[in-house]
Specification:
- The protein is an all-beta fold and 661 residues long.
- It contains one helix and 40 strands.
- The protein folds into six domains: 1-32; 33-116, Immunoglobulins (Immunoglobulin-like), CATH 2.60.40; 122-204, Immunoglobulin-like; 222-369, Jelly Rolls, CATH 2.60.120; 406-518, Galactose-binding domain-like (Jelly Rolls, Sandwich); 548-660, Galactose-binding domain-like (Jelly Rolls, Sandwich), CATH 2.60.120.260.
- 2% of the residues lie in helices and 49% in strands.
- The strands form nine sheets. Strands 15, 16, 17, 18, 19, 20, 21 and 22 form an eight-stranded antiparallel beta sheet that branches.
Length: 661
Amino acid sequence: MKNIQKIIKIFFLLLLVACTENDLRDVSFVNDITAPSNVAALYNITQDNTGSVTITPNADGAVSFEIYYGDGTVAPAIVPQGKSAYHVYPEGTYNLKIVAINLTGVKTEVTQQLIVSFKAPQNLVVVIENDAAISKQVNITANADFATMFEFSSGETGVTQPVVSGNIGSTISYTYQNAGTYNITVEAKGGAIATTKYEASFVVTEILAPIVAAPAPPARSATDVVSIFSDAYSNVTLSELPTTWSSGGFEAINLNNSNVWKLTNLDFIGMVTNYATGIDLSAMEKMHIDYWVPNGVTNELLVKIVNTVDGGEDIESLGTTVSGTWQSIDIDMSGFDGGNLANKQKITQILIDSQGTAGVVYIDNFYFYKQSSASTFDDGILSNGDFQSGNTSWIVGVDDNAPAPVLVNGANIYYSVNVANAGNPWDVNLSQKVEIVNGTTYTLTFDAWSNVNRSMLAGIGLSGDPWSSKTETLNITTLRATYTRTFTADFGAPNARVLFDLGAAAGQVNIDNVSLFIGNGNLVTNGNFENGSTPWIVGVDDNASAPVVRTNGNSHYFVNVANAGNPWDVNLSQKLEIVSGQTYVLTFDAWSNVNRSMIAGIGLSGDPWSSKTETVNITASRTTYSYTFTADFGATNARVIFDLGAAVGQVSIDNVSLSKQ
């Protein structure tokens, strides 16, 4: 194994030697490679009384494995991912140790039992069930004395049997092409020549309706959404649903406390908003709809909007139809510009269409929306720090599937929880996972208030063992106030977190406008460009506003360099104070339509034009870059600078921060 690790290290050394100094930063992803997970091994034993076992290890994120056979053999077998090891065992029960190794040499190990017996398997017990969530999938579990493995034959004609195998005692799954009754066979095998079979007739079922509700939409300001049908928002009043001229069945049903439309024999279902003025969709940027269809329904689904006041209509496809799960579709409203639609200000009719007749289609969360126009908040290295996108990125504890509770109050959205009884601080928690680098200083800023005077914990920490953290106890009141705290991390992880522990005291806690910046706060104003150009300029001319665009609800700097020249020929700057001898951390996002270079740093805005800069190689992938500079110059009107003119291609820049280290 040491030789394999040496080979890996040599490979990376050769890779690094081939890179320039700036390119070396681009291999930092290696530090983010996680430890292997879901480590297991599949056994296959020969039925010839020899005890010959094939061991096939597998794991997420592994490139190789060490297999310790558990029979006294000292040296492990070294197995690359996708390959197998072979070993001969005498009769007995063995505990195998399987060690999975990732690209950087990080290991994860599990212990797994192996039974080798030369007796025929006895007391075979088989459990086979239709999966509750996946249509036409069956799950099979088999247990037997003296057995090592089992094989499942599906009983389908024209399919090579057995179709799947597993270790005895484990559960395996298989998906049929068609529902129906099949004669299935489960064969338990050990090291003996004789095997034991279970045979039965089994009915494979198809799920014909969704069994869970569609994903809940994010919280949005009322001014940012026009909802046709959703439990999450206030819906517009429809004059007709369905219309008398619809072709298909319509039924409003309830599914797990969620209201859903069930459309049967669907050709098209029409609805009328009103024929006087219709509804105004001109400010909306996206159309959203969730649909669910059973297997076998492959009809293309479409949405048509009609303006009968000024005239015209246009139709958009929902794309390739996918069955068996809820599909969440978001379509750019510019797609409706291709027809003869006069405008989107007076939409009087909306139709859900099918190419051909679709047997059954379920619809939920049908609405039009735009990105929040009210949010100009700069949250630093966090996402959705002002909660204007609802609970996106915010969770309870470290569970990625536990969204944090938010409250919509007019145009503002914020986190809100009521702690009924005091307990452990971590019993009630708000977190967002973010990379924390060991030894780095961070500034956390947020607003908080309550319905009583009470305490809470705020800080940064790990999202797993050993749960290291840097926190501070804060006393909040009924008055909304802004709190700022600075922490230097003595731990680090790519999936660390900002955390608020709220369970130690009773009372309501409201949190809003959370930001985390590297260093001692952000010296840059409007670093996320959500306030447009202000105060970003071209060069040092205070009257030359920098070009800013808004794409998919996000504002950022944008320029297209047509011809290469001097770096400073194309520039983005913001004037601010730089103190000589002070160390600064500059962080920003950048991307292009080509692979190209740019210059980023700090400098003076006049003679002698002193500066500290780095050449950055950017690509088509939006990437966050961070550089540290110690100034040997200073001025009250110095600047952050981006010089972009030395190479052709587009440059986009966003989320700029400059902080003192």
